Amino acid sequence: MTVSAFLTAHSVNVKLSGRAVLKDISLALSAGHLVALVGPNGAGKTTLLRALAGLVASDGAINVEGEALSSLTLRERARRFAYLPQGHIVHWPLPARDIVALGRYPHGATDPARLTPRDTEAVLRAMRLTDVMEFGARRITELSGGERSRVALARVLAVEAPVILADEPTASLDPRHQIDVMKTLRHAADEGALVMVVTHDLGLAARFADTILVLSDGRLVSQGAPMEALSEQIMGDVFRISAYRAEFQREAVIVPWAEI
Amino acid sequence: MSNQNVMATVDAASRWRAGVMSALVALVVLLLLASLGIGPVRLSPLTVVDALFGGGSDVQQVIVREIRLPRTILGFAIGAMLGLSGAALQGLLRNPLASPSLFGAPQSAAFGAVLIIALGIADVRSYALPVAAIMAAFASVFVLLAIAGRNAGLLILILAGLAISSLAGAATALVMNLSSNPFAVLEIAFWLLGSLEDRSFHHVILALPFIVAGAAILLSQRNAFRALSLGEEAAQSLGVDVARLRLLVISGVALGVGGAVAVTGTIGFIGLVAPHLMRPLIGHDPARLLVPSALTGSALLLSADIAVRIIPSTSDIKVGVLTSIIGVPFFLYLIKRERRALAGGVA
């Protein structure tokens, strides 16, 4: 465990309806890093994200900024972890700007029509970073999939939390939007946040992440810099594929190639 | 769009909502006056106000203050509670077809009350009646949400609601079936139809504390409904205790609906209709819909109660019958509109 570790987990186990979904997970992550969480379907990626945010009960110890997760109130957790679930669900056709403003909920701004200047500043900043300002007044249901995902991302950025947990933020987006989203998250990490992204896109993970965690059947089987964490051995054992590996413009390139 | 523009649309929307609210309040005040003025003896709004504050003849005072005022207060409070309950349940379940009556809450409350009457445990004017109704309403909504589970789709909720209201109806029928007193049965049958007629201040005192408590609980949770728009998981991650919220909403709805049913019998569909009437005017934000839906519920029940006094008929039309006659076709229309979501089985 490094001294600068911002978020740590020690022997975390999670059982969901009697089945062990996470088995003995220990990790230490630093602020300012973008961490990609990869693994086959059903490996427990989403559950690990939920456990770290305290959304699912786990045994073992999770610490954030040196404080035990279990000792934090719901609101204290909400200020530390901004969580983006899969699918960008919004059940009512609310204006995009009101959805972004929900990011200030943990800070006591529960009504988007009554934001403090500080809240307004955070909301506008998040909207600028994700380039959603132009359709801020439009209803979420009137937006395209790519626009919706940016609004969802803006909501998460507006929390201004030290930890951002995003579950498949690039799923079902076109390549241009996938890169947009990853660059926005990379920017948040560069500004000092710990960003953790679940993704199936090993190429995006290798290119944008500082660290890659590989989960397989509930266990953390590999972690480290992209090329080491996604070694040929791991690619074969965990994903049962071979990959094309290269470097392009000084960034790691991994392209899944053939089944083994 | 610039920063100023994005925020300016917020102000414009708030002003529009304030306008709608003022219009609603004015409408409800008019209906309150009409409800006090209309009946076998018609009184002008001025006479009503005069009699209300101790002016006018003794007869006018008795008509307004003792006969029509309790009925009007109950119409206002119960209509508001039903509208509020509907909006709160729709917010909790993120589902435009949620409402107390579709979930069998009033039917269950009625069963609780009927059981108390039939068993002779307490007389009709005691607090045992609303308490039993509230407990039965709480049990019905609790069981419904437990069966439907988290993130339940429309179809599951409506099927479970249908089953629960059928069960409550069957249980009520059983109690009446087994009752040895035919007059009591007839009285229960009429009471079940739902009416505000011949209610005194005693009924107001019986129901109002529960309605006020229920409304206070639901209104206190309003902002959590907005966070719930993002789904339960995201809401939890924003600091909303979703399990606690569920329990509070079930309690609030049960208190309000149980209290209401105990004095008026079952009055359905106002909770379903009121939020739908408000969405085109107020928008879909579940937190902002609560108070306008309550006012709309008041306006609907007061109108229906005025209508049953005006519609010429040989015997009294019960207000609960009227709201169902209007409400059920509206429900069918909603089903048609939500057809796609229903067929997919997802909310």
- How many DSSP H or I helices of chain A? 9
The low-confidence parts of chain B are none
CATH top level class name of the domain at 75-161 in chain A: Alpha Beta
User: Can you tell me the residue ranges of chain A where pLDDT is under 50 for at least 5 consecutive residues?
Assistant: none
Biggest interface, CB < 8 A? A-B, 42 and 34 residues
Helix content of chain A: 25-40%
Question: In this structure, how is the largest beta sheet of chain A organized?
Answer: 6 strands, mixed
- Taking the alpha carbons of the first and last residues of chain A, their distance comes to 35 Å
Count of folded domains of chain B: 1
Largest sheet strand order of chain A: 6-7-8-3-9-10
Give the overall silhouette of chain A.
Answer: globular
CATH topology assignment of the domain at 75-161 in chain A: Rossmann fold
List keywords for this structure.
heterodimer; A: alpha/beta; Rossmann fold; 6-stranded mixed sheet; 4-stranded antiparallel sheet; B: 347 residues; mainly alpha; ABC transporter involved in vitamin B12 uptake, BtuC; globular
Give a brief description.
The complex is a heterodimer of chains A (260) and B (347). Chain A is of the alpha/beta class.
What does the model show?
The complex is a heterodimer of chains A (260) and B (347). Chain A is α/β, with parallel strands linked by helices. Chain A contains nine helices and twelve strands. Chain A has helices at residues 45-53, 74-80, 96-101, 117-129, 145-158, 175-190, 202-208, 226-229, 232-239; strands spanning 5-16, 19-30, 34-38, 59-64, 67-68, 81-84, 163-167, 194-198, 211-216, 219-224, 241-248, 251-259. In chain A, the strands form three sheets. In chain A, strands 6-7-8-3-9-10 form a six-stranded mixed beta sheet, with helices on both faces. A four-stranded antiparallel beta sheet of chain A has the order 2-1-4-5, covered by helices on one side. In chain A, strands 11-12 form a two-stranded antiparallel sheet. The longest helix of chain A has 16 residues, at 175-190. The two termini of chain A are 35 Å apart. Chain B has a single domain (72-344), classed as ABC transporter involved in vitamin B12 uptake, BtuC, CATH 1.10.3470.10. Chain B has helices at 3-37, 45-52, 58-93, 105-119, 128-148, 154-178, 182-193, 201-220, 222-228, 232-237, 242-264, 270-282, 286-310, 319-337, 339-344. The mean pLDDT of chain B is 88. With 347 residues, chain B is mostly helical. In chain B, helix 3 packs across helix 12 (270-282). The chains are: A alpha/beta (260), B mainly alpha (347). Chain A binds chain B through residues 50, 53, 55, 74-75, 77-79, 81-85, 89-95, 97-99, 102-103, 105-106, 110-113, 120, 124, 127, 133-137, 139, 155, 159, and chain B through 1-3, 5-7, 9-10, 13-14, 94-95, 223-224, 226-231, 233-234, 236-241, 283-287, 347.
